Amino acid sequence: MEMKDVLEMGQRLRNWGRWGPEDQLGTLNFITPEKVVQACRLVKKGKAFALAIPFDSRGPQTGFGGRINPLHVMLASGADAAAGAQDLIPGGFRYADDLVIMPLQCATQWDSLAHVSYDGQMYNGYDARLVTGYGAGRNSIDKMKDRIVSRGVLLDVPRYKGLDWLEPGYPITPEDLDGAAGRQGAAVEAGDIVLVRTGHMALCRSRGSWEGYAGGDSPGLALSTAPWLHEKQIAGVATDTWGVEVRPNEPPKSFQPLHMVLIRDMGLLLGEILYLDELAEDCAADGAYEFLLVAQPIPFTGAVGSPVNPMAIK
Amino acid sequence: MEMKDVLEMGQRLRNWGRWGPEDQLGTLNFITPEKVVQACRLVKKGKAFALAIPFDSRGPQTGFGGRINPLHVMLASGADAAAGAQDLIPGGFRYADDLVIMPLQCATQWDSLAHVSYDGQMYNGYDARLVTGYGAGRNSIDKMKDRIVSRGVLLDVPRYKGLDWLEPGYPITPEDLDGAAGRQGAAVEAGDIVLVRTGHMALCRSRGSWEGYAGGDSPGLALSTAPWLHEKQIAGVATDTWGVEVRPNEPPKSFQPLHMVLIRDMGLLLGEILYLDELAEDCAADGAYEFLLVAQPIPFTGAVGSPVNPMAIK
Amino acid sequence: MEMKDVLEMGQRLRNWGRWGPEDQLGTLNFITPEKVVQACRLVKKGKAFALAIPFDSRGPQTGFGGRINPLHVMLASGADAAAGAQDLIPGGFRYADDLVIMPLQCATQWDSLAHVSYDGQMYNGYDARLVTGYGAGRNSIDKMKDRIVSRGVLLDVPRYKGLDWLEPGYPITPEDLDGAAGRQGAAVEAGDIVLVRTGHMALCRSRGSWEGYAGGDSPGLALSTAPWLHEKQIAGVATDTWGVEVRPNEPPKSFQPLHMVLIRDMGLLLGEILYLDELAEDCAADGAYEFLLVAQPIPFTGAVGSPVNPMAIK
Amino acid sequence: MEMKDVLEMGQRLRNWGRWGPEDQLGTLNFITPEKVVQACRLVKKGKAFALAIPFDSRGPQTGFGGRINPLHVMLASGADAAAGAQDLIPGGFRYADDLVIMPLQCATQWDSLAHVSYDGQMYNGYDARLVTGYGAGRNSIDKMKDRIVSRGVLLDVPRYKGLDWLEPGYPITPEDLDGAAGRQGAAVEAGDIVLVRTGHMALCRSRGSWEGYAGGDSPGLALSTAPWLHEKQIAGVATDTWGVEVRPNEPPKSFQPLHMVLIRDMGLLLGEILYLDELAEDCAADGAYEFLLVAQPIPFTGAVGSPVNPMAIK
């Protein structure tokens, strides 16, 4: 597949106008009220899984492109109180406050539909120049603030293949996705948010280092999954990798071409850097690969992404 | 009531050791798996309400104590792409990235149990000096990353009283809470997260200004609600105000004394600056004041609070 | 004067190409090695004046346009050390570290020649689109890192006029500048950096508030000073106001039109928010209005401005 | 030498009370007005050297202890203007603004006298607990805002020894300092600010990487230089290394012990990460190793350090 084929595929799978000329939600429109009700009915055990990695300075970022790890600093602390610095507060009240500096793409995150563009346009045909230093005039993440609640389905590809993890560079195909879903007994349906586990984070943990995780070689979705994702009418897809799609990218002279099709053409919600290993263990143990997923963003006005702590509730 | 009475009440309502000497979750322990399952059963309409205010520079903060409003900046944008600054990226991929600088207490938030201390101790007897410039060694917000899922109940006090909002300085009593719950037909139960609407945010909106919201006079919970909150065995309480409790504070020479009892002694989760007006309208319309509440924090390691976009799902 | 006259004046005073097609220093080229030597010879008393205001959260910024006051936070402190948080450091060493978040235009500052543009061009004809989210590709402040050393001359306009301060809205004319220079006995020469005192900061201090300082009405240079500044071949001009030029701006439907001419056309270094009152007292006392000025920027790569603590040494 | 010897030396060289019980300037008191005048007289060529390294994300920091490299972001840009985002600004004015996030110890810097303490005390006997999350109550860098102007002397140790750079781990002795000064013909005098070149930055440049610079092995001042620095009555000392003193530190179980003596006991101003190579070339060429040094900090209120762009003017 060459870039012209990618662009042609983007043209073919394009959802622009499908939900009206003013739409800024894309495939989240596949989540209906009925879907939300059904998703809540999936909860049987009352157990929640937090799918965010720890937000701290030991995260996977290397500083490239300004993407540092979250920098958490204290504005006031118990140590300050003990040092007498809060003695003027009446009644004995003592407190701690803190602050964070973080790229919105630094750790577990949703990409907004304003995150990726090409040929001067973003999802639904909006001019990419509507995203400026003042924020995104269209397709910003805050538009999705109350919409990311649905049925979640975990597709644990390495487990299906009998592996601890997929090798970096392994392209996950539609056949892999169907195979995992079939083996797990959880069919992917319209409106679902699909969590694809590659095991790449487990590999990093086994090595004791994030080395190579951010932007390096990685297993991930092949370009050929785009029609599959389109046809299934899923609301979103998220992985335990830095960038959803396989790396090195296909075709060679490209950068994240699947993002171009999925975000800009299809309006598909993409999630990255999810911690799926504990959830995967539980799914393997009880055989239930479907759950309620509540993964709302923080509504940063005009933002092109958001940190998120997705809750999978079984 | 004087400060000595507050401290005595704190002593009486103290939950230290109740869930073991190593506990860092406090009243979240009241949320059982069964409770989670039941809460999910409450969802009938498939409609979600985002209870966070917009996270942007037009928020309520005034800079006091370092609490600025979220500062959202772009690391890259569509305008940059149009200017040619991304021309080296192969394959036509163009992107936008962003970064936020924000106090964790700047907008809709959870206070962790490390947020408030007195007499050198925080919840469960931990030394307050475990909270330093390096973060909170105990009771940090990340401990709660997968625990804030439960039944939510809205107590709309002004609506119960036939008012648009409670006046600043109005102390909400246990009778008000019981009265609202009774009128609404939604009894407060163990493990619930109780959302108390005061209308203070509606007042600010009607004025078109946050003036006085952050730290100024405000309606809020009276000190006398502490035993009520304790007896009900609720998991958390949150309001549409800056600081949960009534201001000016009671007694006069004090600062947020109810925080001292609720957070430090009881280990109760407190939420602040929630946007409850739209949810309240819906509850008044359909008569259902109970719902699934999924309000997970972002797991900042060692943090004493977290921004949150609580989802009330009906 | 209307905008078309401003633009015409800009055309007339334009220094583009004057120092070659690759120049990024503008009028700093007027500072010769001989000038530097002469400036150093002016030092007689061995007394230095720091012309920066305090960099802290009590500064003049209001948050408009993302311009917050400097936010200074501690990464580690003596209180932390006392709380035992540094006990692992061997040998007894204890330390404090800190961090600042600040707009480069938040307090006493130099505008780089990339700060202002119009008609798509900046100083020396460079395309304004060379300034993107990745920084300024031309005319950035770091280019000036070793060039802002020269003779400084203080023109204390209110003192010359027998006033404590000039009223907001007062346009300082060439006659005022000549009058002050004449009265003070310090003629403005080629290569000088001219500090124009309006007394506006003294007015704020007398009121005890920065209210209205940032972007509000202010005394300042009239548009008619542009030819004067050009003819004198000065290297830079700086004031004790937020924005150098008189506000409300002349003509009515404009914004900082003098900046357009001075920065973009002339390539003149502009400094803002300088604390001149103490220096002015000293100059009035000893009658010496000339001094060595060393006012180097911090060399932020690609930045469009820099905080600065200008040193006037007499 | 063991830590007890270090502490004994600290006791012996202690300058507490030397300039009064309220002093917060330490050895800067050695700089007299006459000294400033004499320093200005040293300027012969009118050539200034900027001794700061570039402040950008490619700096030497690794994130350790929260010390990231400066993160420079744009608040507005020419690209935004071209995208139409500034079209509402009247009169054609277009602008760029920016913001920096930086540890004050991230690049070329002064340590304030509040930066290092031991046994609960900092310089002049102040309680180390006066440095809290709210800043330094004593010995902060802003106290020095107009005091760091003096004669600078470069001691180019590797050049004196006929080397390109000193090897990491090489301890510079008083004999080395005297030798370099003698060879260069520039005696160190009271009130001087001494710049010691080790060549460590040149080594990094030759390798094309900062690897190991921040906190790694490095040439630097031996503990035995403390009495020399005390006796000479210098005002400050700065190097082209991360931490002034030799690393690995002497004695083995210690961390920056020379800092303990120099900053906390002597009240000596320390500067780090200075770019001295270009200045050194010039000094070697013209034989003049003395110059005017103007190296004022940015006056961050309550800060324990400051970025600085020291100007050596010859």
Structure characteristics:
homotetramer; 314 residues; alpha/beta; nine-stranded mixed sheet; two-stranded antiparallel ribbon; 9 helices; 17 strands; 24% helix; 20% strand; globular
Explain what the structure shows.
The structure is a homotetramer of 314-residue chains. By secondary structure, chain A is α/β, with parallel strands linked by helices. Chain A has helices spanning 3-13, 33-41, 78-82, 157-160, 174-184, 200-207, 225-231, 257-266, 277-286; strands at residues 48-50, 71-76, 94-95, 97-103, 109-111, 116-117, 131-132, 135-136, 149-156, 171-172, 193-197, 220-221, 236-239, 269-272, 290-294, 305-307, 311-313. Chain A has a nine-stranded mixed sheet, sandwiched between helices. In chain A, α1 packs parallel to α8 (257-266). The radius of gyration of chain A is 20 Å and the shape is globular. Chain A starts with a helix and ends with a strand. The mean pLDDT of chain A is 97. Chains A and B meet through α1, α2, β1, β2 and α3 of A and α1, α2, β1, β2 and α3 of B.
Question: How are the SSEs ordered, and which strands pair?
Answer:
Four copies of one chain form a homotetramer.
Chain A: H1 3-13, H2 33-41, E1 48-50, E2 71-76, H3 78-82, E3 94-95, E4 97-103, E5 109-111, E6 116-117, E7 131-132, E8 135-136, E9 149-156, H4 157-160, E10 171-172, H5 174-184, E11 193-197, H6 200-207, E12 220-221, H7 225-231, E13 236-239, H8 257-266, E14 269-272, H9 277-286, E15 290-294, E16 305-307, E17 311-313
Parallel strand pairs in A: 9-11, 10-12, 11-13, 13-14
Antiparallel strand pairs in A: 1-17, 2-4, 5-14, 5-16, 7-8, 9-15, 15-17
Helix pairs in contact in A: 1-8
